[in-house]
Each structure stands twice: as structure tokens, then as C-alpha cells.
Amino acid sequence: MKRFVPVLTVGLLALTACSDDATSSTPTSSPSTSADDTAAPTTDGSSDTTAPAAPSTSADAGGDPAFEPAACFPAIGITDGVDVRCGTVTVPMGGTGTTDVSLFVTVVGTADPATAESVLFHLPGGPGASAESYAPILASTYLPLAEAIGRPIVFVDQRGTGRSTPFLECPDPSETAACVDAWEADGIAPLAFTTARAADDIVTVADALGAGRVDLWGASYGSRLALETVRRHGDRVRSLAIESVDTAASPLDDAVDVRAALLRAGEECAADPACAAVVPDLVTAVDATAAAVDTDPFITAFGQIDGAAFVGTIGELMQWARGVSYVPTYVAAVRDRDVAATQAVQLAVSQAPFPGGQFSEAMFQLVNCTDLAPFDPVATIDALDLADTDLLGRLRAESGRASLGDACVDWPVNPDAPTEPVTSDVPALVIAGSIDSNTPLENAELAAATLSSSTLVSFPSTGHFPAHQGGNPCALTILAAFVTDPTAEVDTSCVPAPSTVATLPAPGEATLATTAMPTIGIAADVPQGWLSLDGTTYATAGAALRIQLVPGGVDDVVAGLAQQFGIDPTTVVEETVAGAPWTTLDADVEGSATTVLLTQADTFVLLVLVATEDGTDPASIAVPVVESIMPL
Length: 632
Description:
This protein is α+β, with helices and mostly antiparallel strands. Helix content is about 35%, strand content about 20%. The protein has a 9-stranded mixed beta sheet, sandwiched between helices. Strand 19 (about 580-590) and strand 20 (about 590-600) form a beta hairpin. Helix 5 (about 195-210) crosses helix 6, helix 9 packs antiparallel against helix 10 (about 305-320) and helix 9 (about 280-295) crosses helix 11 (about 325-335). The protein starts with a helix and ends with a strand.
């Protein structure tokens, strides 16, 4: 069986696998944009590049926390010292630790934390993610939001992760005890890296910035941290926004809740004639198809499709806010054993965003183990009532047993880990995706029940991270209004109707429309209806498009393509497209007609690749895409 075009695009990513993280491959400006182009807009529409007042950095003799300026990580469309300022705040480790912790702090926006009415702390997910994870969308999402609410948005790399030090590492997860011993020998106390300690750090950083009251916006695990901050420091919290809610206890019944999310997806599909025409009964089709391919699997370019692989991809699609509408399409593709359509979905899922920067897997495991240990997670999961046909729920339960059972045996037990839900009258906005398989809607309902001044907003046909990935203007609008005035009634009129199904158009029927790609600093016309989770990789049955920034020079990238895919480099043509010099390469790669266009953009190469296997000329798609490219 010939390899499908996704293999080509995935292989292309491998050319820069060693330099594909935010610290090394993210340019500081878009390919055709100067630093002046990224200046923050003023209210009259002009640009102002005057740096705002720096946060307070003084510390008195009593040992008050101090913010010490430091260089920021690179981010597209961001000017260090103007749009973003970074620094460190040193705090005692606590517990039995004998060293200090240096917290890396990122302040987004032109407002001064010391004079703003309040400061919005955004608490990333994980645990283990950092501010650098958000480098690709700081300019497109967080900077405009900071200016809209008139407050800086502050990220704190949670102790143990990101650019904070010490960074917790455990090279061999199966040797947890050895890692703990090594940390303690270096003066590092594992129980000084709990959610409670991180909550205290938020208030300490606020003090170091000269801020008074704080607004909290936590996403996924960040919502757990935000709730703990309210528990411990409710008097400092002006407002609380939590999305894709994760409480300490909520992962224990995820295996049941993910089934509930699938049932909601089925209800939305049944109510939409277009979706019902593709899959008349979504839940029954999932169960029946899972059983069928478990008995008789088939092969795609990404491997074997059996029951576990099938429902695993469904879980992935339900997790990502932009992937839910492809669930019926994928179910129908696997049901019908349509290899081309199945592979298109698999390609999109393979490029789903994952936190960049310096993600600490050790922190992820340590915090989850210490937070959930009091709930006896394995016994709780074993007691769940799961139907024999519920393969999705059973796999989630199996995953929970593995990550919260044997994997936690050698982590220290935190005797002070809280078990009671957070009760508060702080104004709260709770945002959820109705089809989220990672942090199901039930988690949000559980948290909202003990927040007496809360409003729960559920987005239909939506998965994980409705707001913070920047792909949902309505969620960001609601969030901005709430932070501006937490006591006002929440206006949910912008919440869209369900969007239950997306079809896969044939490659030759591609209709292009302009789409912003903030992760690489451009906008371009791309085929509508093609699947994409990362915003730069697009796939349909029998074709794929990849737009990418690659470090280095055009000649080096061409040589790499030639070596990896057996392409004759002599077929390269130099031409002018849309007034700019581009290098064009046309080739047949194992049955896939392929067009690659490349142009130099500072120290990067902007690459556009289209591959087809249905007879469509890939250049007929690639050239219009290139002609449409413009800087954001």
C-alpha cells in the first residue's frame, strides 16, 4: 500500500525536530514585518512604542519580594520592553528545602501593574506548562486582551517548570524514588512544589509587582490552581475566571464524564439534519465501529486502526475546541473503512498543539500525585460503573489507573492536601466546552456549585480551552467584559449555535478564504473545510497543505527535502510570485504529486507544501496560497 501525503508533511516536520520549540524556532517578527509594525495601537489608531513604566523592583530591608528585570523569550509580533516585560522574583523554597526558588514572570501589556486597578494572572495548564507555551499567540490573543481590559496579564512559570529554577527533572519516570533522593540531596524538597505553594507564589509575585487586588484566569490545571488561590488568598482576589475546569477530585470520574460528553455530541448531531445524514446515531455508531475494527482492524499511513486507536482519536478530537465537528466525519470514515478520509483526520490530530517552552513532566506527575492521593484514586476509578461497550470510558479509566496508581507509589504524600471543594462568593465566570473529553462539562458544574457568585457558560460543539487558545472570539469577549466589571450580568448572546459536522471536500473543489496564522505571524488564503487543529496544517481526503517556518536557508531546506524524500534537487525553479522571489520544487513522492514553495524570511524559510493523490495539480492550490500571504 502506498504511503499517503500526511507522511510527507509529517516527515517534513522532522527536518527541524531538534529546533522546533519556541525557544529556538520562533522568530521575533513575522516574515515581512519590522519591529515598528508590532507597536501597540493607541486609542486614536496611531502607534506608540514608548515603553510603559517598569514594575516596582525595590525590596526593603525587611525582605519584601522584588521583581528583577530579565530578558524575555522570543515571540512573534512582540517587542521586549514595550509589549512584554519579563523578570524574576525570588522566594524561599519552604518545607525542608535549603535553596531559594526563582520564579520567572512575564507581564503582557502596556499598563503598569503598580497603578492598574487590578492585575490579571493567567494560570496555564499542565501542571508543567509555562508562559513560553503561549509565545506564538501572545501578540494575537493576549496583548489585545490586555489592552482591551486596561490591565496587564501576568504569567508566572510555576515553581519547578518553565524558566523558573530549579527546574524539576526526572530522566527515568520509572525511577521516581531515585529522582526524589537526588532532589533532596540538592536541597530540593518535593513537597515544596505543590499546588498550594504555587498559589502562595501568585500573591508574592503580585506584591513584587506592586499590585493590589488580582484577577485570576485559570485554564485546565490552571483552574485548579486558581481555585486554590481563592481558597488561600480570597481577600486578594477581585474576580475568578476558570475554563476547562479541573479540580483536584474531578479526574477521578472522567471515565464516566467522557461518556456523558459523547452522549451530548450525539444529541447535538441528531438535532442537525446534516450531521444525522452522516451518522444517524453517533453513540451507537461509535460503539459498533469500535467493536468492528477491534475484530477486523485496517491499516493507514499512521498505523493500525483497531478499537483503541479509533476511540483514542475520538477523544483527541473532542479535546480540541476546533476538532469536535470532525467527530461524525471520522466515525463515518472508519465505519466505511475510508482510508483517505481516516488519514486526513489522523494528520490533523498528529499536529494538535502541545505546550512548547520548557514543560516539566516531573512536575506534571508530582503535582497530580500529591493533589489526588487523598482521594484514593485507584479504588475510586475501580468503583466506576462502565458498560462493556464503552471502550472510550474504559480506556480513560485504564489511563487514570496508570497515571495515578503505580506511577504515584514513590512520590511523597502531602498530609496537608485539601479535599474539600472551594467555597467562595468571589465573582466567578466558569467557561466550559460541552463536548470536552479532557475536562468534561461536569467538572465545571461541580466547581460552580460552591461558587455562590458564579455564572457558567457552556459552548456547544466545543472541546478543551474555549477561550485561551484564542480561537473563540465570543469566549474572549465574555472574558474581557467579566474582568472589566465582574459584578455585571454576563452577556452570553454571542454564544454560537451547535456546529456538529464538518465535511471533507475533494482537493479539486478547494475554496480558499483568508485565515490568520498567529503562530507564524501571517495570514493566508487556505482551503475551507479542510481539517486543521494547529492552524498551519490542513488536510482533506487525498490532499494536505502545510505552511511552516523552518530555521536556516532555502538551499539547506531544499537539500534536506531532497535527501529525506529522494527528490531530485535539479528540478528546483527560481521564480517571482506576488512580487517576491520564491523557490519552487515539484516532485512525485511515492505516488503523491507534491509542490513546495520556499522563500527566505530573515533567518527562517517560509515554506508552503501541497501534496495530492487524486490527480489534482498541487500547484493549483499552493500558488494561490502563496500569492495571498501577508504579515499580521
